[in-house]
Specification:
By secondary structure, the chain is mostly helical. It contains eight helices and three strands. The chain has a three-stranded mixed beta sheet with strand order 1-2-3, covered by helices on one side. Strand 2, helix 8 and strand 3 form a beta-alpha-beta unit. The N and C termini lie far apart (53 Å). The model has no long low-confidence stretch (mean pLDDT 83).
Amino acid sequence: MAARTRADVLILARNDAVNRVLFRVLILNLAVAVAKLMLGYGTGAVSVLSDGFHSLTDAASNVMGLVGLRASLKPPDDDHPYGHRKYETLAAAGIFVFLLFVVVEVSRSALNRLAGGAAPRVTIMSFGVMIVTLVINLVVVRYEGNEGRRLSSELLHADAMATKSDVLTSCAVLISLAAVWLGYPVLDPIGGLVIAVFIARTGWEIARDTSRVLSDRAVLAEDDIRRVVMSSPGVVGCHHIRSRGSADHTFVDLHVWYPPDMPLHEAHRLSHILKDRLMSTYPHIADAIIHIEPPPPAAIPNH
């Protein structure tokens, strides 16, 4: 078995850290979902029940994230020469799919209640359960968001966004429960529809962010890469600069001009210096492909 490089060790350590965060959040999300669903079925409150399904979707997305993360650890092979990193991105996109199902279910339940049905039973315990679960969600959002930024994980970022929407929906549920308590039961299904809007908005944001990775949108600004390239020894110029991938796993390729009379072995040596400089400036670059070529006549001094 080949010895692991320092980059391999860093990737494994990073993925282990992401895995631990996801597992901890999964336990908390399951506890919150169970509490809300029990309260929702026990009281008949559509808004609470809808919020419980939303929290259950958060837990399901955690499971999907754990599966996707495990798949992303597989090394490059003949079929996947760039590695399996995008499986993590696909897992983040899977969160969006789950949210779509939740939007449909929440909207259906709310519209059915608006068409008729008994008013929910609201007690002091209803408020207590929702406030406790709200506090837990706030802790999860802060913890997962901070870890997502520290580990540069779009999966943790997407999951934190989903949980953040749960915070907003819990606030809407508390307002709905207060309205029912004061004698306005119609606001319970209306609160469910508000939850559907929150969930749909979060789903759109997740879909937007993951589509940028899957569609190979540029990750690094061309001018930023050019500044690093032009500061490297021997470089006359560069063009055809491209980048793709995710914020923590980026691929770069570009064409670099070296003097036309420079020996090939020297240009090759300098290109490795350039590659090292790029990867040290941007540690999230997984690989940089540099095409060596002579400059066009107009770029040669005194031509």
